């Protein structure tokens, strides 16, 4: 079976087992390793991508369902030279630890901020219910997101 789709703005096609997961194909065929496999069951959000403008857990999406889809991964929403605003806020607030959860969080929050440019903390918490971080408390992550609407300032290191 051949499936044609757009991946980060480029036309692509996949020929193979239609039951293969999008996550597997992104990582193994296209070498887009930003989306991570952690739970593999749709619970943790580490593999979050965007399909036709909506967040989706790539580990649960069979390739056979993607004919004509517009796919976007973390590699397609910012570059090292020009981070997207959520990525930049994560850097500014120094929230990254092991980093396994962050590509998924950035995908979720980028989508969320598009529709909620001035969210409450409760709304940000709620938006993150499908993204699990095993390292950090969530407070700094939420601070980082709130900073995008001017509601918080980056954490600064204490001076010696
Ligand atoms: S690896 Fe897909 S949701 Fe956890
Ligand atoms: S930083 Fe390690 S899981 Fe979130």
Automatic annotation (TrEMBL):
Residues 1-77 form the 2Fe-2S ferredoxin-type domain. The keyword Metal-binding applies. Keywords: 2Fe-2S, Iron, Iron-sulfur, Metal-binding, Oxidoreductase. The keyword Cell membrane does not apply. InterPro entries: 2Fe-2S-bd, 2Fe-2S-bd_dom_sf, 2Fe-2S_ferredoxin-like_sf, 2Fe-2S_ferredoxin-type, 2Fe2S_fd_BS, Beta-grasp_dom_sf, Diverse_Oxidoreductases. Pfam families: Fer2, Fer2_2. It comes from the Bacteria. This is (2Fe-2S)-binding protein. It comes from Sulfitobacter porphyrae. The lineage of its organism: Bacteria, Pseudomonadati, Pseudomonadota, Alphaproteobacteria, Rhodobacterales.
């Amino acid at each position: 079976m051949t499936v044609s789709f757009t991946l980060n703005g480029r036309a692509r096609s996949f020929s193979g087992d239609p039951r293969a997961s999008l996550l597997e194909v992104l990582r193994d065929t296209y070498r887009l390793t930003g989306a991570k496999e952690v739970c593999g069951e749709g619970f943790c959000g580490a593999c979050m991508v965007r399909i036709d403008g909506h967040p989706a857990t790539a580990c649960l999406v069979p390739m056979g369902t993607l004919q004509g889809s517009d796919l976007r991964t973390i590699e397609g929403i910012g570059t090292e030279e020009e981070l997207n605003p959520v990525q930049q806020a994560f850097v500014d607030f120094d929230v990254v630890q092991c980093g396994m959860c962050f590509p998924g969080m950035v995908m979720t929050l980028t989508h969320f901020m598009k529709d909620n440019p001035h969210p409450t903390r409760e709304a940000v918490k709620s938006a993150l219910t499908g993204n699990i971080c095993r390292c950090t408390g969530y407070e700094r992550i939420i601070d980082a997101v709130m900073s995008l609407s001017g509601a918080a300032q980056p954490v600064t290191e204490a001076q010696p």
